[in-house]
Fold these 2 entries.
Entry 1:
Amino acid sequence: MRRDRSWLGLVPLLLFLFLFLIVPAVSVFQRALTDNDGNLGTKALKDAFTGQNFDAFEFSVRLSAQAALVGVVIGTLLAYAASVLRRPRWLRSVVTSFSGVAANLGGIPLAFAFIALLGRQGLLTKILDGLFGFELYGGSFTLDSTWGLTTVYSYFNVPLMVLITLPAIDGLKASWREACSNLGGTSWTYWTRVGLPVLAPSILGGFLLLFANSFSAYATAAAISQKSLIVPLRIGFYLRGDVSANEDQLGFSLAAWMIVIMAISMGLYWILRKRAERWQR
Amino acid sequence: MRTKRTTMVIAIVLSAGLALAACSSDSADTTAAPVETEAAVAETEAAAVETEAAAVETEAAAAETEAAAAETAAAAAGGDLTKLAADCTTEGQVNLIALPDEWANYKGILQSFRDKYPGVKNPVANPDASSKDEMEAVKTLAGQKDQPDNVDVSPAIAQEMVAAGMFEPYTPTSAGDVPASLKDPAGNWVGSYYGIMAFLVNTKIVPNAPKTFADLLKPEYKGLVALNGDPRESGAAFAAVMAASIANGGSADDILPGVKFFADLKKSGNLGGTDVTKATMVAGETPISIDWSYNLPGIKADMETAGFTTALAYPTDGVYGGFYAQGVVKGSPHQACGKLWMEHILSDEGALGYLGGGAIPARFEALVAAGKVTEEAKVNLPPAELISKIAFLTPAQITAAKDVLAKEWGPQVADA
């Protein structure tokens, strides 16, 4: 009997995952647990999740959840609009190809684009002031505030959400809606009993992805903000600072906690998704 | 650029990759080092890991019968430059890192090195790297042919590198002219240039330019003041806080008034959140930038090209001098060239090169005494009465200030 060798096709992927995900992740934990003299200890891990460092995690999780929520709501609505759009025909493909590009734009170019547009000397800031006498910076708005960062993150979060949910929304069959109406359901019934439950897995998945996207954003955040409450920036202080010395272990401990938080949210997503997909079986 | 799906993964991989690389280099340091030394001796162009080996093998040394004499001379007193230059020409290259073109006129200094020693290449890896990045590169690239031969690091990182034994002690021939506070007693590093904090002001946006730290608090500068980085990360921002502290009753032993000053600046809304880069300055986004005096003349010219008018001010109320330390990396591939580069940056050409970029060369006083500094060369320098006030921090003072910043900067300024 010939043995099944179909698993061989997976080898490159597994090898890749091993080298670039498993090994580095294990090494993060290893470095988080070893101090400069090579002694094992959990002090750094503890320090990385207390005091200012804990505040940073709290802030980052809150900021990322807020940015993800904004992205999910706007992105889903936009995807729905693109899905029901019949005319002009070209608009839909413009939306999807733009989303494809914008979802991948980030880092310093994006940050700088926002600085040029909405910065203190930004084009839009000046236009608003000149034409309408509206001072964008009159209140508490700054690009590095929570809402400023959410705005910038939305630039890649919203298009990413469109790309994720558009196929799912396209999958909503017109006949389901007709069936719902025939049985006396209103639009509200349709969405709460049919539409959203069908879309739930992809919306949840989208939320998680957007959360991860915002939680791990480094270059964009670094170019706009000097807040050390953003965990990736904080890791930067410990790992590449000019003045901080011998605090690598703390940086790795922060990274280790980031992995833990991501693992927890992945787990939550997995459980939620199981429940959301129950009706499919 | 971020990728569509796996940003998180990438962030982890990036930081972890660093860890991985550092781990593997650690083991290379301990296990592979002896083997490499032997191999180097065997090869004819031996990267001069040991002066002895180099002396035996190079052509110049063949003429000399007493290699030992050459060895002591080269190691202790800087040796004779002709031989060093010949050894370096044999090596053909010096690996440099983190020297931006517009930083203290490194562009000109790199060029004058190539003019003086034709045939020796001096590539600069990762010009915008931080000091910590440099140290990491020395560690991770140990034993490889692209390991940096020479570094230019902040005093804090220099101390760390001394502790880790990463420097090859070398005292350049002209080190006698360098003030004691600018060199390591054991010869690990020399600080060959220094500067003070300065404000570069875009006078098209801010017609009434601030002159002192106290001026920065005026309501008219709301949202206009920007710091070059975070003091917990960037040496320039650290210096700005230290200078502000001195301006507000603090001292080299007390950085807290500086933290308080920036906390007030943040509270009043004057301190913007954006980091200073050449791009933000040329775009007018950071109209009042606080940075090293030796970074600003180059950017000033760029801003003027971009159509702005500018003013350079040296705050008189807070004078704090900061230097960067240069040293030869122990066991790096081009030892002779690493030393020759030290000789070059401390030579008259090197020193006048720094001067051209607005940096004060370590041998400034000796050069002035020798009549080698023309009025023209001083055009980018801070006023003489400020230069004479410059004091440097000791490593212990730096460590103490750093600890205060680690505790206070986040809650009081960055995240307030």
Entry 2:
Amino acid sequence: MIQRRLYLYIVAAVSLGMLLVGLGNLGTTTLNAVLRAPSTGTVVKDAIAGFGAVTLVGLPVWLLHWTIAQRLAGRHPDERASALRRLYLYLVLAATAVAAAIVLRGLLEDGLGLLLGSFTDGAALARTAWVSLLLLAFWFYHLRVAEADRAAVGQVGTSATLRRWYAYGLLFLGLAFLLFGARSVLQQVLVLLVDGRQTIVFGGLIPASLATMLTGLGLWGFHFRWTSREPLRSDDRGSTLRAAEGFLVLAGSVALTLVGASQLLYYMLARALGIQHPGGVSDNLLAALAGPGSTVVVFGLAWVWTRRGLAADAGATEAARQAGVRRLYTHLVALLALATLAVGAAGLLWTLSDQVLNSLLGRNVGEWRDRASLFLTLAVVGTPMWLTHWKASPEVRERFTLSRRLYLYAALLGSVLALLISGAILLYRVLGLILSTSDTTSGAAVVDAGRSASVILVAVALGLYHWRLLRADSAARPAPASEPAAPASRFTVAIDGANEDQIRRLLGGLPGGATYALEPRKN
Amino acid sequence: MRIGRLRGTDPTWLVVVGVAVLAVAALASMLLVRSTQPRPDLSTPSGVVTGYIQAVQAGKADQAWALLSQDAVQSGPGRVGPLFTKDDFKQQVEGNRRPTASRVRILSASQSGDSATVHVEVTNASGDLFSEASAQTIAITLKREAAGWRITSNPYPYQFQ
């Protein structure tokens, strides 16, 4: 049975691939011949011969094997519910959906470019339209078949997991298209609004960004609504894949929002402190802020949206593995925020120490405002993120989790490593000063010692804090439950059809201390 | 709209409305800025650079070629690398046109006697699916000739296509 299924679906998949490649290229070659000069006649004939052969082999083979597979599925419910059939269907769905999304994006970009005058190749547009239609037709047909199967024989276990891999994978891809496209469109609009007069050619950036955003909307919108309808909604609410997709989106949105906010704050702070080109940006600060500003708006909204969705799922019934994914996300963000905060704080102290010591030693003070803006930004962005994601004393079921211990040990490890390296540098510089080594005359040793001390201060503070928390967690950990007392009950078991040796072997697995007596029953 | 009614709305429609607003804003801002753009003033260094880049992106090789100084395309002392004939230049301008052309902004223009420098920012869509853009700054030098300002620096058209 399994061998027949394997054969049918492998041949169907390969022949379908041949059919799609053949049909797609036959169509584009024909369109080329119709819409372009006839001088390419020889090339057209070659292409028609090659892709015609692929189509003529792929079509009957696929039709034959797929018809047999459909007939068997119609007769036998277990055939229709088989995981192998679902694997075939969802693989074909994923491949055609991803390919269709890429080609449709190109079609939209070219179409918008044609409307706005940045693209003029009408034949290319017709070719892309043909391939898009072909892929969408096959995707839609397989979706109908998968839906009919699910309605007829249900979908549980491996089959449901395969469907979730497809649905949440495409949901993630669609959302990525949508968010990155929207970010790019917003950035282009803001640049045009604040610096439109300086833009001498628009190029194809707006059509490209719009195409990405609109393709993402279609891909995400369809799969979002599909998974939000009953019965899929109830089936998937407790699924680990759904939670993993949500937290992956959340982690990405949080990280990108933080990067955007940091850049935004850094540019503004540095400009306020009189730096003309912070981070090498041009004179027009508003145009420079368009990029990070768009990132904050688009990914900040995605952050809020995803959080609400995950909270709604968790509010209904949060399965154990979903809760594990949530904790992992929370502690990962807390660790990243702590690292940002630590770099910001140490950098600020470093810059301050440089200023004070260089002034006292009569050395060149140098530029400090750009660095101070950067480190202040990191501290300002990292602190609230850490405070909102880290709980020093959470409730008992959250306190003794693996992800919390990983966070605590990672924070302690980072602090100790920073302490070791900076401590060694500080000691080296102090010893150099005591022994008046050759490189201590210029005052650089004192400045270096000040920098190391800045890092040590932050590392000691964070290391001590996390070490104390580890100790507190260990002290609060409940003692393992003692072994349950051996039941005092006695049992009488009657066994037929086995000899004494076999029964003694079986009873050999009883715990230590247990006794038994065998008495043959006389009939 | 009352909050109660907003709460009852399918959240997917909020995203659709947001995307529609963004798309309309993008198209409107592009058309608006383009309609208010003056023709390039070829008596200024910025105008010559603008005219050159617009001609390159429109595939008008003859117009672009007319704005180059002979210094930019002929060999001379200290100059290395391949130089252009007019036919080479024409082939590059017309053959390298890309569907996703670069956006170009003028960052600054400075003039000193008969020479000038114009800094432009060229932003390319990197060609990936997520529309990530990468920007680079290019300095274009010009000198005043009998016919007006002409470009003397590297004239390779692909950098603006």
